[in-house]
Amino acid sequence: MEHMEWQHLVIFAAAMVLGWVSFIYFWPRLLLYAYKRAILGQGFGDGPVPVNTLYAERQAHFADPLHVPDSGSNLMNTGVNRDTLLTAGWLDLGKGPQILHVPDVAGRYYSVQFTDASKNINFAYVGKRTTGTEAGAYLITGPGWKGAVPQGVSQISSPNNSVLVVGRVFVENDRDLPTAYGLTKQIQLSPWTQP
Amino acid sequence: MTNSRSFTVLAAFFGVICGWAAIHSFFFIHTRSVASDAIQGVFAGFGLAFLTVHILANLKVTKVNGWITMFGCGLPGNGMFLRAVCSHTFLGPVNVPQEAMYWITNVDGARRGLSGEHNYIMHFPAGGLPPNNAFWSLTMGDAGNRFVANPIDRYSVSDRSGLGSNADGSVDIYIQNVAPTDRESNWLPAPSGKFNLWLRVYMPGGAILDGKYNVPPVVEVK
Fold first, then answer.
1. Which of A130, A170, B11, B168 counts the most CB atoms within 10 A of its CB?
2. What is the residue range of B30's domain?
């Protein structure tokens, strides 16, 4: 067993390639994991946000952005934003689909972004650009889900059971803030079970 | 963004680990076990991967007039390398380009660091405001990317700020610590120290998505 230098090199190189590929592959997932912890563990000033619910940024926080709620994660305030109220949540579709309800926003800009938590890619959007500004309901299903989609509801197929949801509702100015907040609160999730 | 100092330090740290592992594996080969080969190999791989992503991030960004942006983030099928680069650069979920584009800068058009010690003008030629189907905004952040307190409670300027135009239809935005005389309508208050600027364009127009729209530079007023 004196001369096994090349075996060492082979093992080292193989492990290195494995480490290299997996770090690059899993880096987005690791960074999004911080969002999962912020949402489900800490919340944004009103305690943790339960899985499969959306939390709308406080109106008072938007009105006075210099004062961030003490107890909340500051991830939602990452990047200075004076344009949109945010709503955010974390989905687990493993126990069944969710329905996203959106109100009629009367032409206002809004979007709800669905992000695959393992790849940090947005596999679907609901909002002005993609679905218009009328009221609607969307069935969000996990991978491999089979069933009948209820009438009047569009299906959004997620490639992953873990989904980060980020909603943005445009705020025209300070006077418009209560209206925008009212609409943001109406963007909601509810569980759906096959009848 | 990727040019933050902590990322650079972390990259250097990984680099040192890699270098040490490489030297160790070549010169102290007779003392090695299979487990140390595998463990050090994996860590060296992590380090190289971090460097790879960091270098790729600097290659993939689009820099125009000191402004930095990135195309292709958030899009399904964009590949594991671009996904890593986008996550690394924006540290979180980011809109697809069709939904919104973001530019950030901490330097002026001459690549000097932005600071409230100087006065700046951002000049949009007539018809040259960012094309969009939703809205655009230019938002001020201090060195730590926090909002900046100011006497008129204005934290951004945008298509709804009532910006005044010049006689030729162009628009000047005054980015400075103290209100400009007679031009307060076009004032974006800056802190006294270093700052960042964010330009956001939601539902950007075709010229932006085609890469044909150039964000004007932030120019220091001498």
1. A170
2. 5-60
Which tokens sit at B200? 């956001």
pLDDT in tens, A93-107: 998 999 999 999 999
Domain count, chain B: 2
- CB spacing of A120 vs B160 below 8 angstroms: no
Average pLDDT, chain A: 90
Residues above pLDDT 70, as percent of chain B = 92
Q: Which amino acid is at A141?
A: T
Please report how many Cα atoms fall inside a 13 Å half-sphere around the Cα of residue B70, on the Cβ side: 25
Please tell me the distance in Å from A195's CA to the nearest CA on chain B. 33
A177 touches chain B (CB under 8 A): no
Which residue on chain B is closest to A163 by alpha carbon? B93
Residues A23, B37: C-beta atoms closer than 8 Å: no
The runs of H, that is alpha helices, within A37-89 are 59-63
Predicted ipTM of the assembly: 0.91
- Nearest CB among B21, B139, B160 relative to A80 is that of B139
Instruction: Classify residue B24 by burial, with Cβ atoms within 10 Å: 0-12, 13-18, 19+.
Output: middle
Choose the mutation target among B10, B14, B20, B29 for the interface with A, i.e. most A CBs under 10 Å.
B29
Q: How many residues does chain A have?
A: 195
pLDDT of residue A60: 86
- Residues of B with Cβ-Cβ distance to A24 under 8 angstroms: 49, 52-53, 80-81, 84
A129 in contact with B, Cβ within 8 Å: yes
Domain co-membership, B112 together with B194: yes
- Confidence (pTM): 0.89
pLDDT beyond 60 at A1? no
Task: Provide the residue type at A188 as one letter.
Answer: Q
Query: Are B148 and B188 found together in one domain?
Result: yes
- What pLDDT band is residue B204 in, cutting at 50, 70 and 90? very high
Token pair for B203: 């539902």
How confident is residue B30, by pLDDT bands cut at 50, 70 and 90? low
Residues B30 and B51 in one domain: yes
* Cross-chain residue pair A18–B37, CB shorter than 8 Å: no
| Cross-chain CB nearest to B93 (options A25, A32, A170) | A32
- Per residue in B150-163, pLDDT tens? 999 999 999 999 99
